[in-house]
Design goal:
Blueprint (H helix, E strand, L loop, with lengths): L5 H12 L5 E4 L14 E4 L5 H8 L4 E4 L12 H9 L1 H10 L4 E7 L25 H20 L3 E6 L1 E3 L8 H11 L11 E3 L10 H4 L6 E5 L34
Length: about 260
């Protein structure tokens, strides 16, 4: 779901490359430029319509969920809560009803703690609610909804806490991708590069791990970021996707010629 977006389209490409049969749910008005040339089944639906969501899931084993309203600048945040929290409930209900065996939810690095030490760990609870803008709060509430579904209804979920994504085929483009593009075209432009970033093709790598695929159904959180959350120090290559299976950090340089 959300297969025609920036990260969703890259997830779709990776699944196709691995020989997986893919059904991509997009809105009837959605731009599918990022999916052209892929051998996939496209169905139309909307997360506001639980029947269309169930139809899209029927017969599938895994759901990769990449639907999010990222318009953090909205003066009225109601659309953020509607899409990112309330309508996620429809998707959770449908996943349980259709007996999905793995629900992979694309979350955000903003749900990680700020004051638990450096580096931030997925094991620690979110700790800056009073400072957080509404967009961040919707992402935290979305994760809580999934964790509640895991604990109370047995939803087998993985949450990917992804940093700012860069890479090829950013057709939108994303706001940060557009900023990078504008900086490369215009002399005298400055680009803030201090925020954690990750190549858009990287976050799913631990999901494909044979050990993770064999793990029992439970809630897991994985972070994907190049930088330490406090010092912005690049993670050593030796630590990428190693040490702790459930809390691995995988990263790659963001440069691409495509």
């Amino acid at each position: 779901m959300g297969a025609n977006g920036f990260m969703g389209s890259h997830i779709t490409r990776q699944l196709v490359a691995k020989g997986r049969r893919v059904r991509a749910m997009v809105r009837p008005t959605g731009d599918i430029s990022a999916l052209r040339g892929l051998d996939i089944e496209i169905c139309h639906g909307d997360i506001s319509d639980i029947r269309s969501v169930r139809d899209a899931m029927r017969g599938c084993g895994s759901v990769f969920y990449n639907v999010v309203d990222t318009r953090a600048w909205l003066v009225d945040p109601k659309p953020l809560y509607l899409t990112n929290v309330e309508r996620l409930g429809n998707v959770i209900d449908a996943s349980i009803a259709e007996k999905i065996t793995r629900f992979i939810f694309t979350s955000s690095m903003v749900t990680l703690p700020r004051y638990s030490g450096s580096p931030a760990s997925e094991e620690h609870a979110f700790d800056w609610w009073n400072e957080a803008p509404d967009y961040v709060k919707t992402r935290v509430l979305a994760e809580k909804a999934i964790l509640d579904a895991v604990d109370e209804r047995g939803l087998p979920a993985i949450m990917l806490c992804v940093a700012n994504t860069y890479g090829p085929e950013d057709y939108g483009p994303t706001p940060h991708g557009n900023a990078l593009w504008q900086a490369t075209k215009s002399k005298g432009k400055a680009l803030d590069c201090s925020l954690p970033t990750v190549d858009v093709r990287v976050p799913l790598r631990p999901v494909y791990s044979p050990r993770l695929r064999a793990a029992s159904a439970s809630a897991m959180r994985l972070s994907a970021s190049v930088f330490d959350s406090k010092t912005f120090t690049p993670w050593p290559r030796s630590q990428w996707d190693t040490k702790n299976l459930l809390y691995s950090r995988c990263a790659t340089p963001i440069c691409s010629r495509r």
